[in-house]
Automatic annotation (TrEMBL):
Alphabetical keyword list: FAD, Flavoprotein, Oxidoreductase, Signal
Entry's EC annotation: 1.8.2.-
Boundaries of every FAD/NAD(P)-binding domain copy: 33-136
Record domain Flavocytochrome c sulphide dehydrogenase flavin-binding: where: 355-420
Pfam family, one: FCSD-flav_bind
Ranges of residues in domain Sulfide dehydrogenase [flavocytochrome c] flavoprotein chain central: 164-279
Signal peptide: 1-26
Name the UniProt record assigns to this protein: Sulfide dehydrogenase [flavocytochrome c] flavoprotein chain
Organism the protein comes from: Roseobacter denitrificans (strain ATCC 33942 / OCh 114)
Family annotation (InterPro entries): FAD/NAD-bd_sf, FAD/NAD-binding_dom, FAD/NAD-linked_Rdtase_dimer_sf, FCSD_central, FlavoCytC_S_DH_flav-bd, FlavoCytC_S_DH_flav-bd_sf, SQRD, TAT_signal
Lineage: Bacteria, Pseudomonadati, Pseudomonadota, Alphaproteobacteria, Rhodobacterales
PROSITE patterns attached to this UniProt entry: TAT
GO MF: flavin adenine dinucleotide binding; oxidoreductase activity
Length: 422
């Protein structure tokens, strides 16, 4: 009896020893496998860092339907005529060359019991750790009269690529003196200054090509990111052109009619020529299918971006409900590096560093007139918490604004190399 008990205790002690040691494991298929769903700012970065840093010890599969990723960041500059579409497109060849198994397909489901991801093209991919970075989808019924069937008549242009090109084509086809309308989204949403940078770029284009045209923004919010900076810039460069209708003035009570091309704000109907509807957002649908969302977003632990619903699933970028960071490409890239370090540590026993995050959001208001807002963050038990921040000031010199714009150019080159490899 005593011997048996000792043997049992011995086994237990050995097991505890194993638990205390780095958790190196693979679910019965050779080396540990990481599957990443979504090859954007979060997913491409995480896949590249795990493959690069694990030096072949971890298998990495990236599931991404598109062969060319068009960044949303700088897509407003394409609308304003500062960038070509080709400059925003990036292929996955560099990731494949650095050892990531790139599968061009949609992930259609996650079986958390068998730890597999189902593919639209058939079959499934097994994982030990799954990273979801699917970006955003739109909340159905968020804007009365609009759904995905209306997106060609009234584009959102809030996912990169064809929607951005469509919006620009519509802008260029606007008759002289007509109206461009934007329906802005409620918080929280992808890229807080994005709608207002876009309005600046639309105004820049119209000022040169269609100077009597007007812009209306219907906004469900009472205030918006970098508001003082944008309002100063609009007054200086686009006086009389932009009419922002915030929630106090009915900007949240909006309906659209894509057949009639009308926008109704608080019951007042206006004919519009372009209607850029950016609806309320939620985590990309695969996060819901995986069962890791609570409401519209996927709650995560701040120290490693693991899901609060499943310790073997991690959620990055826009889809994650993480705390204080804005939903930006910079944030997604920063979160991906923390996650990659933690996942590699969990799978191979490599050193895991304390989580630190940072973000900067640049916006272009007019030629060489760049502004920025940013912060650093740390992980707490509760959330990713802001440590300190900075923001451009109103009334800055033209020289400083030019430097800020040049900084953003450098950032774009840097982040895309960080995501896809040089
Ligand atoms: C107009 C605009 C301007 C912006 N400007 C800036 C900026 O200046 N700076 C900045 O930092 N951020 C900016 N952003 C925000 C930035 O684009 C996003 O925050 C960032 O892309 C989020 O990264 P992500 O990895 O969460 O999602 P994404 O980069 O969108 O990547 C998601 C990927 O997942 C894929 N995917 C989705 N579902 C599935 C599935 N089921 N199976 C497989 N793949 C799937 C998609 O195809 C996509 O490639 C801007 C956004 C917009 C719209």
């Amino acid at each position: 009896m005593t011997l048996k008990r000792r043997a049992f205790l011995g086994t237990g002690a050995a097991a505890m020893g194993t638990l205390a040691a780095p958790a190196v494991f693979a679910a019965g298929h050779g080396k540990p496998q990481v599957v990443v769903v979504g090859g954007g700012a979060g997913g491409a970065t995480a896949a590249r860092y795990i493959a690069k840093d694990s030096k072949g010890e971890v298998g990495v599969t990236l599931i991404e339907p598109t062969r060319q990723y068009y960044t949303c960041f700088f897509s407003n500059l394409y609308i304003g005529g500062f960038k070509e579409m080709g400059q925003l497109g990036h292929s996955y060849g560099g990731l494949a060359a650095s050892g990531v198994n790139v599968v061009h397909d949609w992930a259609t489901g996650v079986d958390r019991d068998s730890k597999t991801v189902a593919l639209a093209g058939g079959g499934s991919v097994p994982y030990d750790k799954l990273i979801l970075s699917p970006g955003i989808d739109f909340v159905e019924g968020a804007v009365e009269g609009w759904d995905l069937s209306a997106q060609n008549a009234m584009p959102h242009a809030y996912k990169g690529g064809s929607q951005t090109e469509l919006l620009k084509a519509q802008l260029m086809a606007m008759p002289q003196g007509c109206t461009y309308a934007m329906v802005a989204p409620p918080n929280p949403y992808r890229c807080p200054p994005g709608p207002y940078e876009r309005v600046s770029m639309v105004a820049h284009y119209l000022k040169a090509n269609n100077p009597t045209a007007k812009i209306i923004i219907a906004d469900p919010k009472a205030k918006f990111s970098k508001q003082a900076l944008f309002e100063e810039g609009w007054a200086d460069h686009y006086a009389g052109m932009i009419d922002w209708v915030g929630d106090d003035f009915g900007g949240g009570n909006v309906a659209v009619d894509a057949d009639a091309m009308t926008l109704s704000i608080d019951g007042e109907v206006t004919n519009v020529d372009v209607c850029n509807v950016i609806p309320a957002m939620k985590a990309g649908h695969i996060a819901t299918l995986a069962g890791v969302t609570d409401g519209n977003w996927a709650p995560v632990n701040a120290h490693d971006m693991s899901s609060k619903a499943d310790a073997d699933i991690y959620v990055l970028g826009d889809a994650a409900q993480q705390g204080d960071m804005p939903k930006s490409g910079y944030s997604a890239n920063s979160q991906a590096k923390v996650c990659a370090n933690a996942v590699r540590g969990a799978l191979t026993g490599s050193k895991v560093f304390p989580a630190k995050f940072s973000n900067t959001c640049w916006s272009l208001i007019d030629t060489n007139n760049g502004v920025k807002v940013g912060a650093t963050y740390e992980a707490t038990e509760e959330k990713i918490a802001k440590v300190d921040g900075f923001i451009s000031a109103t009334g800055e010199t033209a020289e400083l604004r030019k430097t800020t714009y040049e900084e953003s150019e450098g950032w774009y080159t840097g982040i895309t190399a960080d995501m896809f490899g040089a």
